[in-house]
Amino acid sequence: MAYLKPPWFTARIFNPVAMWFGVGETLTVTRRNSGRPQQIPVVVPEVEGVRYLVSTRGESDWVRNVRAEPCVTLGDTAYLATEIPVERRAPILAVYRPLAGRVVDGYWRQLPDDADHPVFVLTPAP
Known about the structure:
It is a single chain. The chain has 4 helices and 7 strands; from the N terminus they run H-E-E-E-E-H-E-E-H-H-E. With 126 residues, the chain is α+β, with helices and mostly antiparallel strands. A 7-stranded antiparallel sheet has the order 2-1-5-6-7-4-3, sandwiched between helices. The radius of gyration is 14 Å and the shape is globular. The chain starts with 7 loop residues before the first helix and ends with a strand. The mean pLDDT is 86.
C-alpha cells in the first residue's frame, strides 16, 4: 500500500500546533513498537450517525499502530477502531473530503484509489 510521508514541517510543527488550537480532533493511538502514545490531529466524518477515521496519506504510522492496537481515543472518548473493506469506503471518503478541505485534494491526486486510504469505523468502547 502507498504512503505519502508528511514533510518535516507538517509532522513537527503544524500537527502539534493544530492539536494545541483544537483543529479537528486529537487521535491518540498506542505505538506498536514502544507502547507509548502517538497523537495526531484528525478530521472525523460521521455518516448515518457512525464516526470514522480516514488516512489521507495512505499506510501511515498511525494506521499501522491502529491495526496492531485498535483501542484508540478521540479527545477523552475511547473507541474500538475496525478497518472497513475497500468496497465500503467510497461513501465515507465522499463525506470526508469536503470536511478535510482542499489540502487533501493533492493527496488524492497522488493516491487516487480508495484502496490507498484506510478507513476505520469507530465503535464506542464499553
